[in-house]
Each structure stands twice: as structure tokens, then as C-alpha cells.
Design goal:
heterodimer; A: mainly beta; Methylamine Dehydrogenase, Chain H; five-stranded antiparallel beta sheet; about 40% strand; B: mainly alpha; Rna Polymerase Sigma Factor, Chain: A; Arc Repressor Mutant, subunit A; 2 domains; 8 helices; about 0% strand
Chain lengths: ~375, ~170
């Protein structure tokens, strides 16, 4: 419904009077910034070596140092767990370009990890906010395609890479239900009623998260934890209210984006990891199994104390040990595999990196046209 | 380390990307002078960060990201999320004389900065909800609710012909 708006925005923007490009001032300002950074980086490098000298061994095998050979995991499922899944246009790949491919009739909009393979959302376009309809199917690493009787509209479902369950919320204010689907048998297992107000998001029903046999539902006043076995609902301690429930692997991330990040165990409330952030603005993302935390600096202070865009790169923390490795690449190019490897897919290559060592392997991408979608990444709108 | 481009090469690059970046900046900011300053800052940062940019082919994407980050920073400093809609907007979907309807860019200026930002990022820059949320430092739900509110207001201002009123699921 927004194609016309998009066209008009472009048409009217094209009519704007554009001032001449100030190439001289741009170059002068760029040189000035670069000089300041060089002067500061000499001091900063010495300080970093003093603080995280132990990280040098890890970084020696880090990005750029990884070999370009494939270890060729034994089975398709092992490739899937290590290398994840992605789609290019209508074609689904598991683990690496040589695993699969499985070509579907429609373009892939999004992929969700489960223990049986990926639930694939498809349609006439690769975008999730088109006029629909969307169709769903379970695609397994061995090449089976099982259509699923799902009609989700714009509801936000959740899966867990280690279960064969998909959950989503249905109903209306005052009469919500959590729908539990066994995607391996294409059956709706149960509907669990729950209470609460939902008005903070733009979806038909509140968004949900899933960790094992517990679903998390983001309501206005609290995020609810619903036991799929007993149907009991309680307030999920450690998760913010009125937000997308992030409960990967039973771990939750809390942060104020500027001073610290914490990873807590949802079952026990135990604080598993606490990171003091340098001054700036930061985002965090847990791996699907909850074992790793990606920390991205979106902004940082420059040499003059001014806030500006951060250089590309990100850190990945091992939640259990607190150790981290650094990646000198664009952070949001990477998704995750089910077992916590980082996955990057481009038109020419597929790169899989070990989140605990930073070592990467790269394979040539099979040729293909269409939008690239990495499983587990959010494409819903 | 990638060798920085020559001044002539970078000047040619700036000439090439300036119009598109300027248009995006103007849509975000709504002011010519500030938009020019924003793009200039983004391109200077891109030049200074050449070890990460590495090639002129990648520079456009880097500059675009730098522009968005800087704009988001400016929005945050001005508390964009706390802004309220202007009182010049009708509160209901009452019929509006089509001859009095503003152009899209004029209508955009009547939105709060947060709503304007999500419209520009999503429907001019074609960014996904998740990327928009990251740039604007808010949840994906906030992006969706801001988008929904913005489209509702734009529908009143511009009419159903521009933004049709759909029933049922708005995103599927």
C-alpha cells in the first residue's frame, strides 16, 4: 500500500535544488579528522595492549587470518547447524553453497530456525510488507519441503533452533491466545489463553519469543513467560515490557545502550555476563543458542570529544567466559547459525566464522539472483 | 591497508554521490543548510575512515551509513522520540479538499521528526524495519508504530489515492 508514497517521495526529491558539491571543504575536513585519529590511535593502541593483552592470542587467528578451505562437515544437518541457512531469491541453501540448493516456487521473505530445518516464509515478492499472501513451508537440510497450514497475517512468530515448535499470538484485546504449532507434523498442538493489554506495537497480536518449552509475549505492562506444558503464565523477570521479547537460548540481554550490557539467565535470574561499554552508543545481539553476544558500536567519541559514526567492526563475547574477539567487518552483514557461528552471505562468497576464536572460512557463492535472506535475521515489518 | 584515493578521484566520487545523499539528508532534516552540513560531515568521515572503506565502490554505502548515524545522533540529541505531532494536523480522517493537499515533501515536514525519519528510511531509502530500528535507536515495535502513525497522518494529508486504506493485516 506504500508503493505510491515511495514513488512520490522519489519524484519530489528529484525536483529539489541541489547545491554544488563542496569537494574542497570535504577533503580538508576529511584530512583533519584523519590526522586527529592517527595522533590518538598511537596512544590508544598502547593502552589496549596493556588492558587486553590476553586477547592477542585469540586475535592471531581472527578475521583475515582464517584459511579459505572448507572442512566439509559430514552431514547436511551438521552443515546446517554450523553454517545456518540462507536464501537467494527463491533458492534455499543450508550451511554452504554446496549444500542444497532447494528452489521454491515463490520468493523467500524470511527464514526461521528450528530443529527440523527452516520454516520458510514465501510470497510473490521478497518483502514482508507487501500485500500478500504469504505461504509457509518446512524445508529440511536433506531437501524435503513440507507446506505448513499457517496464515499469520502480520503476526510475529517465534521458533527455537533446538525445538520443532513454532508459537505465535492470536486473538484480540481481552482474549489473547498463544498458538503452539508442531511444524514437523504440521499440526496445531494447543491454544493457551492469556491476559493483558497490547497496544505498544503495530502488529495484529503481540510479538513472541521462544526458548525451549517457554514462550515469551511482549505485553504493555510486562513480558509474560508462558509454560507450553502447563499453560501457566507469569511475569518474565529480566525482560523489559512493551518490547520484542529477546529470549534466545533462555538468555536475555538488557542494556541502556551507552554504559553497560548484561546477559541474564531467564530461569534463574543469574547475571551471566556484564560488560562496561566505552562512551558512545552500542547495540547487542545474542546468538540463537544464547552462548554469544555481539556488541556493535554505532557511535563513538572522536578525538575532539564529539560523537560520530563508529568505524565498522564489532566484538563477540562468550557469555560463559566473558572473553571476546574482534571482527573488523560490517557488523550487520552477519547473521547467526543455529549453533552460534557467524554467517555472512554476499553475491560472491559465503563466510562462516567461529564466534569463540574469530577464525573464518569462506566459500564461493553459487550464482543466483534475488534478495539474500539469512535465517534468523528479522525481516518482518 | 587500502591506499586512500587521490584528491581528484575522491572529488569525482563526491560529485557523483552528492545529489542522492543530499536528497536523503533534506528529507530527514527538512532544512537545506543543515542537510548540506550533514552530507559534508558524512563524506569527510568517509574520507577519514578509508582504511575501513577500502575502495570507491564501497564508499557510497559507507557514506550513506555515516549520514544516517550522524542524523540519528542529531535526532537523539533533540529528543526525537519525545516529540509530539504538530497541531496543524487533522485528528480524524475527515474528507480533505484534494486541491488543498500539500506535496509529499511538505506533508513530510508536518510530521514529528521520529515519524519523518521512519518514512524516509523505510520508503525512500528502502531499509528494513530492523535496520531502521538500529539506526534510530529504538525497538522494531517503535518503528512499526511510528510508521503506522505516520502513514495515518499522511493519508489524511495526501488522501487515500497516495496511501490507500487497507483492511485487515496491514503488512501481509
Amino acid at each position: 500500500m506504500t508503493e505510491r508514497l515511495s514513488h512520490l517521495l522519489h519524484d519530489e526529491a528529484d525536483l529539489l535544488d541541489i547545491p554544488s558539491a563542496p569537494t574542497g571543504p570535504v577533503l580538508a575536513k576529511g584530512r583533519s579528522i584523519r590526522r586527529r585519529r592517527r595522533a590518538t590511535s598511537l596512544v590508544a593502541a598502547a593502552a589496549v595492549l596493556g588492558v587486553i593483552g590476553g586477547g592477542a592470542a585469540l586475535l592471531a587467528d581472527g578475521p583475515g587470518g582464517g584459511d579459505r578451505t572448507s572442512d566439509a562437515p559430514v552431514s547436511a544437518t551438521e552443515r546446517y547447524l554450523r553454517g545456518g541457512a540462507y536464501a537467494v531469491g527463491s533458492t534455499v541453501y543450508f550451511g554452504d553453497p554446496g549444500n542444497g540448493p532447494i528452489t521454491l516456487e515463490e520468493k523467500v521473505k524470511a527464514l526461521y530456525y528450528t530443529s527440523e530445518g527452516v520454516v520458510v516464509r514465501t510470497g510473490k515478492t521478497p518483502w514482508t510488507d507487501d500485500s500478500g499472501p504469504s505461504h509457509y513451508a518446512l524445508v529440511t537440510p536433506t531437501g524435503d519441503v513440507q507446506p505448513l497450514d499457517l496464515d499469520l497475517g502480520d503476526r510475529v512468530p517465534a521458533t527455537d533452533p533446538h525445538t520443532q515448535t513454532m508459537v505465535y499470538a492470536d486473538g484480540q484485546q481481552g482474549a489473547w491466545e498463544l498458538v503452539v504449532v508442531d511444524i514437523s507434523t504440521n499440526t496445531e498442538v494447543k491454544r493457551i489463553p492469556f491476559e493483558g493489554s497490547f497496544s505498544w506495537g503495530g502488529w495484529e497480536a503481540p510479538p513472541v519469543g521462544l526458548a525451549g518449552d517457554t514462550a515469551y509475549v511482549g505485553m504493555d505492562d510486562a513480558t509474560l513467560a508462558i509454560d507450553l506444558g502447563t499453560g501457566e503464565a507469569s511475569v518474565a523477570e529480566g525482560l523489559d515490557k512493551a518490547t520484542m521479547p529477546e529470549a534466545t537460548g533462555g538468555h536475555a540481554l538488557t542494556t541502556d545502550y551507552s554504559t553497560s550490557m548484561e546477559v541474564v539467565d531467564l530461569a534463574s535470574g543469574e547475571r551471566l555476563l556484564q560488560i562496561d561499554l566505552p562512551e558512545g552508543h552500542h547495540f547487542g545481539e545474542l546468538s540463537p543458542d544464547g552462548r554469544y553476544l555481539k556488541v556493535v558500536a554505532e557511535e563513538e567519541l572522536d578525538e575532539n570529544g564529539q560523537m560520530g559514526p563508529a568505524d565498522p567492526g564489532f566484538d563477540v563475547y562468550d557469555v560463559a567466559t566473558g572473553e571476546h574477539v574482534s571482527f573488523d567487518q560490517q557488523p550487520w552483514d552477519f547473521g547467526w547459525s543455529p549453533d552460534g557461528h557467524l554467517v555472512k552471505v554476499t553475491r560472491t562468497e559465503v563466510t562462516v566464522c567461529d564466534a569463540s576464536t574469530g577464525s573464518c572460512t569462506t566459500d564461493e557463492q553459487a550464482s543466483g539472483k534475488g534478495e539474500i535472506k539469512i535465517a534468523g535475521n528479522a525481516y518482518e515489518s | 591497508m587500502a591506499r586512500p584515493p587521490s584528491d581528484a578521484d575522491y572529488a569525482e566520487f563526491v560529485h557523483g554521490v552528492w545529489p542522492r545523499l543530499y536528497r536523503t539528508a533534506y528529507l530527514l532534516i527538512g532544512d537545506h543548510a543543515t542537510a548540506e552540513d550533514l552530507v559534508q560531515t558524512a563524506l569527510a568521515n568517509t574520507y577519514a575512515s578509508w582504511r575501513n572503506v577500502r575502495s570507491l565502490d564501497a564508499a557510497h554505502g559507507y557514506a550513506r551509513k555515516a549520514l544516517m548515524n550522524t542524523a540519528a545522533s542529531w535526532f537523539r540529541k533533540k529528543g526525537w522520540r519525545n516529540e509530539v505531532p504538530t497541531d496543524v494536523l487533522p485528528e480524524s480522517g475527515a474528507e480533505t479538499d484534494p486541491s488543498h493537499r500539500p506535496a509529499v515533501l511538505d506533508a513530510l515536514k508536518l510530521l514529528p521528526k521520529g515519524q519523518r525519519a521512519v518514512i524516509v528510511l523505510r520508503y525512500y531509502e528502502d531499509l528494513a524495519v530492523s535496520e531502521t530500528a538500529r539506526i534510530l535507536d529504538c525497538s522494531e515495535g517503535t518503528v512499526k508504530s511510528q510508521t503506522s502513525a505516520a502513514l495515518s497522518r499522511l493519508r489524511v494529508l495526501l488522501g487515500d489515492a497516495v496511501i490507500p486504506l487497507t483492511t485487515g493485516a496491514s503488512n501481509d
